[in-house]
Amino acid sequence: MKLFLDTANLEKIRRLNRMGIVDGITTNPTLVAEEPGEFEAIIVAICKEVKGDVSAEVVATDFDGMVSEAKHLSALAPNVVVKLPMIPEGLRATKSVSGMGIRVNMTLIFSANQGLLAAKAGASFVSPFIGRLDDIGQRGMEVVEDLVKIRDNYRLKTEVLVGSIRHTQHVLEAAKVGADIATLPPEVMDKMMKHPLTDLGLKRFLDDWEKAKRTKPSITV
Ligand code: E4P
To answer: Does residue 156 have a pLDDT over 80?
Structure first.
């Protein structure tokens, strides 16, 4: 499963990308609004840092506006994927711009039927928001399970990109059910690396080594 970061913060992206574990980035208007600087400049800088796909979202909600923003955003860098909202005009815009070769990530998906329609319209990615469904007492992962099944039943090329991830268990479940991509807040990716037994184990190895050096000076590396 590919792992994306769900952030527009260049510093956090750089830090994790250096480890070689970041396959792409998703942003949204809320995440971009949290960062200083102009929208386009932020997207261009992220696209230079990360080789994989970088989602940038339109803010228009009418067909013409979405198509025009999609063309503008996709021209910023070859790895830009345009995020369009799952509304009727968004479906129409997806059909139109994907026909022009612009890759679309259809966002704000809260049901498998919405995802199916997005795939039919030509979206390269569908983004179910699982944390927001969990927040209202539904099981967000169920939508992911359904979308993975639909993808496999019809051998769809559309990738299932799990968004609104809140914790490491979400990532694990997404991987187990066969999602193509999970996009994580940087803090969740940090937590995936950690286990108290790893820290304890490393400390014990290093302590034992130090002790051994005192009694057996010949074992230095
Ligand atoms: C995904 O593409 C979205 O940017 C994101 O995952 C939304 O998550 P949130 O519910 O934490 O805002």
So the answer is: yes
